[in-house]
Recover the amino acids of this structure.
């Protein structure tokens, strides 16, 4: 969220498979040196994790082929719990909840 780019790669050091990364961009849209971040678990796993996006500053979605999704491409929701993670850590992929989203019409379903 903010001035950066989330992307997926299997060519960088990660947990395995495809992992999600973030890099800060400067005013001209070029990557800022030293800002590459590998998003932590539970967003990235040993499985293929991709298609990361923010719904708000404190929530969003990503896809993965984890076993709990029957090894199929499954959409997961991530939520930042209030007062648990400093705002400047959000770009580092801090996730406190990652669960399969079974009903995309009602994404707030527990």
């Amino acid at each position: 969220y903010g001035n950066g780019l989330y992307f997926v790669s299997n060519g960088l050091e990660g947990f395995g498979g495809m992992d999600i990364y973030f890099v800060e961009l400067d005013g001209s849209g070029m990557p800022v040196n030293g800002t590459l971040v590998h998003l932590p678990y539970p967003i990235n796993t040993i499985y293929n994790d991709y298609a990361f996006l923010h719904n708000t500053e404190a929530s969003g979605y990503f896809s993965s082929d984890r076993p709990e999704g029957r090894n199929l491409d499954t959409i997961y929701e991530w939520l930042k719990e209030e007062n648990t993670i400093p705002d400047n850590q959000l770009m580092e992929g801090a996730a406190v909840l990652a669960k399969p989203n079974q009903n995309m019409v009602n994404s707030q379903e527990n």
About this structure: The chain is about 0% helix and 35% strand.
